[in-house]
From TrEMBL:
GO cellular-component term (any): membrane
Intracellular or extracellular location(s): Membrane
GO biological process terms held by the UniProt record: transmembrane transport
Residue ranges constituting the Amino acid permease/ SLC12A domain according to the UniProt record: 42-440
InterPro entries, per database record: AA-permease/SLC12A_dom, APC_superfamily
A Pfam family assignment: AA_permease
Keywords from the named record: Membrane, Transmembrane, Transmembrane helix
Protein's name according to its UniProt entry: Ethanolamine permease
Gene3D superfamilies registered for this protein in UniProt: Amino acid/polyamine transporter I
UniProt lineage: Bacteria, Pseudomonadati, Pseudomonadota, Alphaproteobacteria, Hyphomicrobiales
The species this protein was found in: Hansschlegelia beijingensis
Transmembrane region(s): 34-55, 61-81, 102-122, 151-169, 176-193, 213-230, 251-270, 301-327, 348-367, 373-394, 414-432, 438-454
Membrane topology: Multi-pass membrane protein
Amino acid sequence: MVDLAHPATPAAAAAAAPSATPSRVALKRVLGPAHVWGLGVGIVLVGEFMGWNFAVGKGGAIAALTACWLAGILYTCVAMIDSEVTSTVAAAGGQYAQAKHIIGPLAAFNVGLYLVMAYTMLEVSNAIVTGDLIEAFAHNMGLVGDLDKRAFMVLTIVFLAWLNYRGVLATLTVNYVITAIAFAAILTLFAYVRPWAPGEVTKHSDLLTGLPYGGLGILAAMHFGLWFYLGIEGTTQAAEEVRSPARSLPLGTLTGIMTLLIAATLTWYIGTGLMPWEYLGQAITPLYDAGRLTGSAPLEVFLFVGTLFATLASANGCINDASRAWFAMGRDRYMPVWFGGVHPKYRTPFRSIVFFVPIAILFAVSTPLDQTITFSILSGLLGYTIMAIAVIIFRRKWPLGSINRGYVHPLHPLPAILLLTLCAVTYFAVFLGYGTQLLAMMSFYILASAWFVVHRYKYCRRGEQFTMAWPKPRGY
């Protein structure tokens, strides 16, 4: 009822009226565990179709298998740590958001850069393989004359960026389907080579060698052994878009690493039983080559489709993850706030998606595959190192029982210690073969850190960055 004796002043009326300021457009929570699985496995499964075999060239087939299992331990630790921290820090940016809440701004800035570089270089690697694969398949089938594979690289990047621009649900639903088909191709090839009858199709007794470079070969193989699993940590980038983070993220991530451990071992068995290690160690599309060697035309076509789908699923997931990390950094003003924009209709970080299209194209048409893989691995390694440190700090600041956790990883701090140890081994392995790239990337990240401290940090609003309703940390 209006008080006529005391009419409201304009200021009071304005205060009483509903706010006219529009609420900030947020990302949609539409994903479930299957989408998380499709994102994590979809990014990584391409590692079974290409790249892992460079580990064979580094140390032989036995060294590659050892590196595969050691890297499997490393990524199991990553998956367990990620599942606990991300189900608690359910925000876009994944490990970047974790470092921001647990360690501080400089660590968060670096982790954000590691994520963006790792996923962008992985996307570039996938585009390169897509171009090489289509060119090889067309030549083998006698379909057309000379093709310019660079056109397919560009088309892959542009099409998948458009798909990501249009919406995350459709993007990751596509990923789920084509990842399942790619995984089915591996299982079909494994069944076709009849592992229950060794010697009929596979020739491990003739092709397997010992350690041609000795124990050092195992160490060197760790470099590309990571390629079997690199990117499974990308499931955390969907944290702000899943319906139930406490359930979906651990379930999708842990089932994802189990899937990849099986796929990696099957892939090694198939490749080393059909090809000499000298050839396998430098092949661009080893599983497609294995399909050709079986002599079955339908299987060759299926492996072409499986390899193509694996590269598309991986590149698709990489665009999703790199854009989320960049978007989160822009929203927190670690990067220009312009990148923190959300599309009003599609509810996607559209500016961050579009920004990386020309960068990815430039690297795809100008950089060799082994170097883009190395850039991605090194950036991932740096992120895992900080992840191991962060989870130790996390447990100390907020012990069990002090905050709600969607998942608690067992045997703490053993996974963190194992992760740090295996990261140190892999740094040395990368240094043996790609020391120049290692030093160049470390220099880049040091210069970027200096830029952040001197210039960018003054734009950050730290009070707006901490979105978790946690109590003060122990010892605060």
